[in-house]
Design brief:
By secondary structure, the chain is mainly β. It has 2 helices and 16 strands. The chain starts with 6 loop residues before the first helix and ends in a 9-residue tail after the last strand.
């Protein structure tokens, strides 16, 4: 598949949040979002990152911003990594259930073992979310994995699909693989995509890994991490972060995959990324 010619649109897009520094290692990203019909507003979840050694380093803070016009975004809630006793926070997402309660799904480094975990927090309003009420949803050890993070959520006909980035062990995985508190940045795992489903946002069925790297020479032989899914003409198209190795951990490129059921995926970009 050829590259998507969307660089111009991306460069001309409006900037809604900027990093707190200009040097390498600073960014604002890991976006998640939801549209709330009752509120007639959209909510953007994002994190603020600083380089290692610049406190609060790595993913030091996550925020939720609200918009009604997709031009102006007002921060309405935030959490710092210290409130989770964690080394870093990663991607989050947000959704109001049919019971009226909000669920905030996030991921961070678990303090007890240095592995990424995914959690959920419930509240009547977004502003009322309390970090002390955070509950573990998925842990790496329970799933036989080395990490589980980056939740991305979509709903189809009353079923919620939660895509997650997972670290699979390899022959190089060892006791010291988590010493850096980010195994994805060591090369001692494989970065894949897993799926969980639910009908109420509370009880989840683990569907397992649905997209993973293949082969020894592919441009994405180390990482295939779904970051968003687009329904189009009866099919589902996933944009995924792809890389050849952990040396590209902060500079992944974009691949494209397609599915009819959100569980079985066909890669449409085997020869190279569709967006650099």
């Amino acid at each position: 598949m050829n590259r998507l010619n969307i660089e111009r649109e991306l460069l001309e897009g409006a900037i809604v949040r900027e990093p707190v520094g200009d040097e390498k290692g600073y960014w604002v990203g890991a976006p998640g979002w939801c549209w709330d019909e009752a509120d007639q507003a959209a909510y953007l979840t994002y994190r603020i990152r600083r380089p290692r050694g610049v406190e609060p380093d790595r993913g030091g803070e996550s925020r939720i911003a609200r918009t009604t016009d997709f031009k102006t975004f007002e921060d309405v809630w935030s959490v710092r990594k210290s409130q989770y006793d964690s080394a870093s926070i990663e991607k989050s997402t947000l959704k109001r259930g049919t019971d009226g309660q909000w669920r905030y799904f996030t991921s961070y480094v678990a303090p007890e073992d240095g592995r990424w975990c995914t959690t959920v927090n419930r509240a009547d309003t977004v502003e009322a979310l309390d970090p002390s009420n955070t509950k573990r949803l998925f842990t790496a050890t329970d799933l036989g994995l080395e990490g589980v993070k980056d939740p991305w959520l979509m709903e189809v006909d009353g079923v919620y699909y939660l895509f997650l980035s997972v670290a699979k062990s390899t022959s190089t995985t060892g006791d010291k693989s988590h010493d850096s508190l980010d195994i994805f940045n060591t090369g001692e795992c494989v970065s894949a995509t897993a799926l969980a489903t639910s009908t109420d946002l509370d009880q989840w069925d683990w569907q397992g890994i649905v997209l993973e790297p293949e082969g020894d020479t592919a441009w994405d032989k180390y990482c295939r991490r779904i970051n968003s899914v687009l329904p189009l003409n009866g099919r589902y198209y996933a944009f995924y972060d792809g890389s050849a190795g952990h040396h590209e951990n902060y500079e992944e490129k974009t691949g494209l995959a397609v599915s009819d059921d959100l569980k079985s995926w066909e890669v449409l970009s085997p020869d190279g990324p569709v967006v650099l």
